[in-house]
Amino acid sequence: FVPDMTLSFMAKHTGLHLSIISMSTGIILSSLDNLEIDIGITYIGTDLVQRFQAVPLYAEHYALLVAPGHPMAARKDISWAEAGRLPLCLLTGDMQNRRIIDRHLADAGVAVPPMLESNSMTMLHVHVRSGLVATIAALGQGNRFEPPMELVAIPIVDPAVTHEIGLVLKSREPHPPHVSAFLAMARKLKPPAP
User: Fold this and answer.
1) Please, what sign has the CA dihedral across residues 101, 75, 119, 48?
2) I need a labelling partner for 9 at 20 to 30 A (CA). Which of 82, 87, 133, 138 fits?
3) Along the chain (194 residues), what's the average pLDDT of each consecutive run of 10 residues?
4) Contact 63, 46 (CB under 8 A)
């Protein structure tokens, strides 16, 4: 969804420069407070973002990602308890996504540490492609795993959970013109509910 926003914005506003940086929610919010960034994308249903303006974009759901030849690849769905007992590679503990996944695994009675941790989803995907480990990923809309990142996404159910993702920015009006333009464009691109 991010490329849909950024490419549309750059096509319409050719004189601007965008930087996309991956960071934890805490760093995003601190960077917004310090005026180091204009807009962040993170989980918006949390206490952390209460003092910021939030613009909902989509709800993510969770899936087990495996290589096409993995023994679980033919499954239609999997429970949190089953997924948590597999050899996993997960994001590092400073990432909110990881804390959410840990909470859902704990609720399912699983507390096995991952075999590998990284703060890079690309690094997790490369390891999953080996077939030796799986990962749990939050997915939005659409098929993100076309070649060369051919991975199989198996929905995690029992329970199926979603978390809302959105833009966050300082609660101040008026916004700078480029921020207002980005918000207007993002609201138009908001994907339909599944």
Assistant:
1) negative
2) 138
3) 82 86 86 92 79 86 94 95 96 88 94 90 91 90 55 90 88 86 81 50
4) no
